[in-house]
Specification:
Structural class: alpha+beta
Largest sheet: 4 strands, antiparallel
Shape: rod-shaped
Length: about 260
């Protein structure tokens, strides 16, 4: 190795000093360049002092409150205790549900029973009303039937009485007309002559219409003459029976029969 000589140590120290000196010089130059020239001082004279400005309101800075200690968190239950509580709660809910279901079923059954009883009551009331109506209808029918039977019996009695009066009147008319008939000498056989006789209310003959001829003009004329000669004809005393005669009396005559058919 080559050992450094004395000149090498001197040159290195000199170079260090030179560098530091140069740095100090530059710092001095920079500070001197930035120094400002002092400005002249100006002053104002006042005749009176101005009003003092109102004191500024100092904003109140809220003092932070110390944090409130939160409630201590509940201690976490042990897994087995939590499961027991959950199971107990589930059992209670199931029991409440079963009880509610039972009550609902009982209430529904009670309502159904009440509805059934109400329907039975209405059906019984309806049957009672139907029986009453049927009984009333039977009574009315019996009453009407009795009235009809009574009216029919009355009509039959009146009809029988009227028929009897008509038969009596027919006999009188037959006898009366027959007493005026004179049979012709040249009469042959037993021919029948039919006449429609219209009468007045007092029995007088109003009109005679020949319905069928006997074939013998002389006999027909003799019968018509006898009817007119027998007027007035004897009518029934009953008004209704007499009306039947006045509406039209059919007389049938046969010379060989001792009868006069009256319709």
């Amino acid at each position: 190795m080559t050992r450094a000589g004395p000149l090498q140590h001197v040159s290195a120290g000199g170079m260090s000093l030179l560098a530091h000196g140069l740095l100090l010089f530059l710092l001095f130059i920079g500070v001197s360049w930035q120094t400002l020239t002092p400005r002249p001082v100006e002053a104002e004279l006042w005749s009176a002092l101005p009003d003092a400005p109102a004191p500024r309101q100092v904003a109140t800075i809220p003092v932070p409150q110390p944090p409130v200690a939160s409630a201590p968190e509940p201690a976490v239950a042990k897994p087995d205790i939590a499961l027991e509580r959950a199971a107990k709660k589930r059992h209670e809910q199931e029991a409440q549900h079963r009880e509610a279901t039972r009550l609902a079923q009982e209430q529904s059954a009670a309502q159904a029973e009440q509805t059934r009883l109400e329907q039975l009551r209405r059906a019984k009331e309806r049957r009672r009303l139907e029986q009453e109506l049927a009984s009333q209808a039977r009574d009315e029918l019996d009453s009407e039937d009795s009235q009809l039977r009574g009216a029919l019996q009355k009509q039959q009695a009146q009809a029988g009485r009227k028929a009897g009066l008509i038969r009596e009147a027919q006999e009188r008319i037959r006898s009366r007309i027959q007493s005026y008939v004179v049979l012709p000498r040249n009469l042959v056989g037993n021919p029948e002559a039919v006449y429609l006789v219209m009468l007045l209310p007092n029995g007088e003959v109003l009109r005679i219409v020949q319905q069928r001829s006997s074939g013998l003009v002389s006999y027909d004329q003799e019968v018509e003459r006898a009817i007119r000669k027998a007027s007035p004809l004897p009518l029934p005393s009953d008004h209704d029976a007499a009306v039947a005669f006045r509406e039209g009396l059919i007389l049938k005559f046969r010379p060989r029969e001792d009868t006069v058919a009256v319709d």
